[in-house]
Amino acid sequence: MFDRLEIRVLPPVPRFAAQLRFWVNGEDVIEGAVYEGGRGPFAADVLPAGRPSLLRATSEARRLELGEPACTGGCCGYLSVVVQRFGDLVQWSDWEAPHAPASPPPEFHFDPSQYDAEVARAEADRWWQVHA
Fold it and tell me: What are the pLDDT digits (tens) for 50-88?
């Protein structure tokens, strides 16, 4: 059975630009690993206009920063994961979590068509740029 990805863009707030949150199987991966007050990456960094998203999975492994604690990643470290496509599977693995009592998330395995469709949907939905 495959895991299910949902990408949500949170609106900008006075201190931060619009940021991403990643829900897998109904759970907020970032909050679970960096706790309340932590944040996801800025939407503009991960979903750049006119270029493919860094979230697109290819056969080449790529480490992505997906979150940081409230004290910043420079202080306690970032939540990062290796994203890679293996034929009929997209895998998130080799998590690195900030220095905290929480453990990193488990390895996730996504159906490539669901994963690609969710990334494409997030790339196309640019509502947050209006508020930037």
Answer: 888 989 999 999 999 998 876 665 666 778 999 999 999
Measuring CA to CA, which residue among 41, 88, 84, 80 is closest to residue 64? Answer: 80
Q: Where are the beta strands (DSSP E) in the chain?
A: 5-10, 19-24, 27-28, 62-67, 79-85, 90-96, 108-110
Torsion angle (degrees, nearest 10) of CA 8, 13, 15, 18: 30
**Two tokens, residue 32:** 């679970």
> pLDDT tens across 13-59, in order?
887 789 999 999 999 988 877 777 778 888 999 998 888 898 999 99
Ramachandran class of 25: left when φ > 0, alpha when ψ lies in -120 to 50, beta otherwise? left
Say which amino acid occupies 132.
A
Amino acid found at 1? M
CA distance 74 to 131: 27
pTM comes to 0.88
- In sequence order, which residues have a C-beta less than 8 Å from that of residue 45 and are 6 or more positions away? 54
